[in-house]
Write the structure tokens for this entry.
Amino acid sequence: MPAVADASLTAQFGALLPYLVVAGGGVLLLLADALSRASRRDHLYLLTVAVLLGALAAQLFGPAPERTALLRGMLGGEAYTQYFNLLFLGIALLTATFATSVFERAARYRTDFYPLLVFATLGMMILAAATDLLTLFLGLETMSLAVYVLVGGQRGSLRASEAGLKYLLLGAFASAFLLFGMGLVYGWAGGTGYADIADGLRGAGGNLLLLRAGLGLMLVAFAFKIAIVPFHMWTPDVYDGAASFVTGYMATGVKAAAFAALLRFCQLALPELGGFWWPLLAVLAVVTMIVANLVALAQDGIKRMLAWSSVAHAGYLMLGVLALLATGRQGLAATVGPASGGAVLFYLVAYSLMNLGAFGVITLLGPDRGEEADRISGYAGLARRQPLVAASLAVCLLSLAGIPPTAGFMAKFYVFGAVVKAGLVPLAIWGVVASLISVYYYLRVIVVMYMQPAGESIHDGRSWETAFATGLLALLILFLGVWPGGLQRLAEVTFRTLAG
Amino acid sequence: MLGSHILSWVVFLPLVGAVAILLTGRRAVVARGLAMLVAVADFALSLVVLARFDGADGGDQLVERAAWLAGGKISYAIAVDGISLFLVLLTTFLGPLVILSCWRAIADRVRECMAFLLLLQAAMLGTFVARDMLLFYVFWESMLIPMSFIIGIWGGERRIYAAVKFFLFTMVGSIFMLVAILYCYFQAGSMAFSDFLALQLPRAAQLWLFAAFALAFAIKVPLFPLHTWLPDAHVEAPTAGSVILAGVLLKMGTYGLLRFAIPLFPQALTTFGPWLAVLSVIGIIYGALVALVQPDVKKLVAYSSVSHLGFVVLGTVSLTPEGIAGGIFQMLAHGLSTGALFLLVGVIYERRHTRLIEDFGGLAHAMPLYASVFMFVTLASVGLPGLCGFVGEFLILTGTFRSALLPHARLLAVLAATGVVLGAFYMLWMYQRVFFGPLRHEKNRGLADLTPREWAYLLPILVGILWLGVRPAPLLERMQPAIERLLGPVTRELTVDRAPLQQAGGARLGTVALQVSDPLEVE
């Protein structure tokens, strides 16, 4: 594939504006943080919101996305990029809102949270748009470095420091795998651009072992970021140790970004991944779903439980990716690819909504509760004390469990539908068995909230911003559960721009 | 305003009511009043449906269709036919009575309770009228949440265990159904029920798909040995929950079997039909025997449901017009009589806070009217001719006896008939121990008889029981065309495999059920 001709500079500027706004805004926030007194941190929040909204506006009202390569083939400028940029910016906006409600009450968080959040979001945007191995690595590292600090950024919290360090060390390993894999692929293809790799694949000459090893090593790095068994070991500890709003950000943003990059990568290397690596990926996806759901059953802490649940959801998402990869083989309807890619995109949005809602509620209740805050038993009687918040959490959990009429059900419906359409009925059965297991632990939290009386007096946090945001998320989840058609069409059309 | 959307109104009015109650019902009185108003209005609307229903037409009526997803391949399609109609009526009929029954019994979080009851009603109604498979599945699964909340929040001692068990059991079945639905969807190219019906699937595929569907429905029925959730759910649920569970929810399983599993995968029936029949006969006898030894009245009634629902499944898989008509009729009759039994158990539980048989005895002295009403319902439940229970059981046994599909059909019918005898035994024995003899417990001496509120929710059911028993013909006539329509293609397809069925299917179809429709004549 010859590199798509670069668009004119002005058009590029328009398409690059969201990245520039976020990057510039990050720098601005760093300065503002350094110059302002600690007591006036809500200005930082407002500035963050302004930056993110600015980037959202630039993305929404900027030039219509085209199938053009930006910066000489470094970034893709399709609707696919736009879709994910909007998702990342939305996630960051909600995360900042959840965080600010905690900052008002607890001083143990570092003030450089906001700039780091913005930089991490920039990394995600680059990661999702990368059409070159170099930008892929750049995006991944920008995101990861910022998130390492976000995880560890709680003053005086041993758990958070441990989590940060663990994530950093293991993340560094993953990066090394990625780099080595990229090196091999580069050596095989003779270029770092996706276009070069695609050219090489079309010829399919040379030493295939080199390519396969390179792709395999890169898959390891992706599997680490999206937390697929057996590369998931860090997830429970890191999710548990980080502040709740950071966990929510990681579970949604980092995962979505890694999947965005993975999907693009899969679309590129379809024949090899769909052929050589497919069986292994299928086994890993099934093992991921079953193991993660079984372990989640045994968790007492709500954050650990949601950490394992996020591993399980990576498994469901992998089913969609597998259906996409299966199109690399013969004899499948041409619609399977876009259907499965679109299903994954839909799933990522639904998944982000419900996880953000759940972590929003956890953040909201957390800071006043002390060390035992995360125990599920601490949620007893919540439905009586804060009915609306409990209802929001219940909707998010039911959606995670995939019970209609919620977005989570529709997401699973589309993904499993794509899997069945690709003729992979056994995989779909594994998927439903896994989600059946998951029902029990999601339901347990609801049971505790609604059906058990509160024990000793528990002080729940209250914050209207977070309550409002989570309530809104719950309504959105219900809305998407009944009218998913619009988003689904958008997701499929968006994915088609990638597939070409 | 109602115009051509009358069915949608029936389904969604309770949903609207639930939202309204959540928003405004901070005071218990408002919540109860609003819920009652909505439930009564919903019943009235469903009567309009009945009035507009053309009994001579066996197809779908009052059809509403709108594109929903996937460019119209998945649609919002609802309709009623002779099978759905009466289940819809049963649901809306029980709705206000249930709300009235928990007027006093539920004093905590009234707003939520009323909202959940109405949500549940909307989901149940939707399940009965849905003619699109995804829509059906969404309604089907949506029933789970309010029902398990009702059990789990307002239930008895082990309510949480019961609620979770109910949820998981039902989920196990329905989740495989989802895969089966997806598979058919890609074969048929649409989620419309009619397109599913037109599918020509190979026999092997039909077997798997039928198994997936039947598992979901068998758990819901519940068919032996999948019934273990039922006694727990029934005993722990509050009275209102038990009534809905027994009255309507259990019928979801038999309805699904009749509406979906059998017409969609007829060839699988030659393999699975006999097994289902055997399981249902085991269920009939096992349920009755276990009911016999229960010390707890509510548990006894719960096990009697296992037995009664076994009859319905048996009649359905007999694939004879009598059997199926009897099955549907039995669903209605069981809904009324068992619903009434749970209400009556609730009445005494509210007064004494116990349901153990040994805590009573001689209640007829203290509460004579209550005792008479209980007797009436007991007789209906055991199938006394002239009351509702008889018609269904008789038709089912006739249908089973004549079934060409089932091997050893006569033996099965005879065995099932012993269930009727056992039924009379455990019900009347329980009645004797609770109501006759001397008043053994001091506490029972001063019990008040039925209050006007209790009469208000019992009387309509009593009238219904009597009316169904004496005049079953109008109902059976309206079911008849729908049953013929359902059986026609099924028997046609099965005749390829089994010649004898032709005889049972073609010639006598339509005449037999009406012949026995008036039990007084049969006598």
About this structure: The two ends of chain A are 12 Å apart (CA to CA).
